[in-house]
From TrEMBL:
It comes from Sporolactobacillus kofuensis. This is Competence protein ComK. InterPro entries: ComK.
Length: 197
């Protein structure tokens, strides 16, 4: 297993699991598609620093999710452009909070051996035992799916598709600045935009 000093979430990151380091401090066991590694950062620190790395703040991401109706333990959009959305399994302040990448969750099943736990199956059939009942886990996965859809619907109208057809030419206006330092569209005596002449 590899050791890293700092870690930034990437598309292949599947899970951030809290673990006890040899000095007693809390670190993170990171599960990726093709490897595992451990870092001294806590799972929450990794999520926070990853949001910053991709141009936002954790508090901003959390606030937006809450404004959209996801009040309790909201999913976090770490990077929309890369499709990275993580869901916490418990309150972020909890020492045992596990974070999972929504896009890597494939299936889940109730554990028959240990009450109150499930097995989550991630990409490449990676199996992880998690301390959560199946109904709350299902709700968290579905809530994150709904959140991703809402974000996608907000962005879709503004995405430019390269169809090969030139975009409609926008008319240029005669925009000027006045003595107060604000801007206006310069009109002629008849009230017509001079740029249209």
């Amino acid at each position: 297993m590899e050791n890293e000093k700092l870690y930034i979430i990437r598309p292949e990151t599947m899970a951030l699991l809290p673990y006890d380091r040899s000095d007693g401090s809390l670190g993170t066991l990171i599960i990726e598609e093709t490897r595992t590694c451990q870092v001294a950062q806590t799972p929450l620190q990794i999520v926070q620093e990853s949001c910053s790395y991709y141009g936002s703040t954790y508090s901003g991401r959390k606030k937006i999710a809450m404004m959209m109706g996801y009040k309790s333990m909201p999913p976090i959009c770490v990077c929309n452009e890369l499709g990275i959305y993580f869901l916490p399994l418990m309150a972020e302040a909890s020492r045992n909070c596990v974070w999972l990448a929504h896009s890597h969750i494939r299936q889940w099943a109730k554990s028959e051996e240990t009450p109150g736990t499930i097995f989550a199956y991630l990409t490449h059939n990676q199996k992880i035992e998690l301390p959560i009942n199946i109904r709350p886990f299902f709700n968290k996965v579905m809530k994150t799916a709904q959140y991703r859809l809402q974000i996608r619907e907000r962005i879709a109208p503004y995405q430019i598709l390269d169809t090969g057809v030139p975009r409609k030419q926008v008319h240029e206006h005669n925009i000027r600045i006045n003595e107060r330092g604000t801007f206006f569209i310069h009109l002629n005596d008849e009230g017509e935009d001079l740029s249209e002449a």
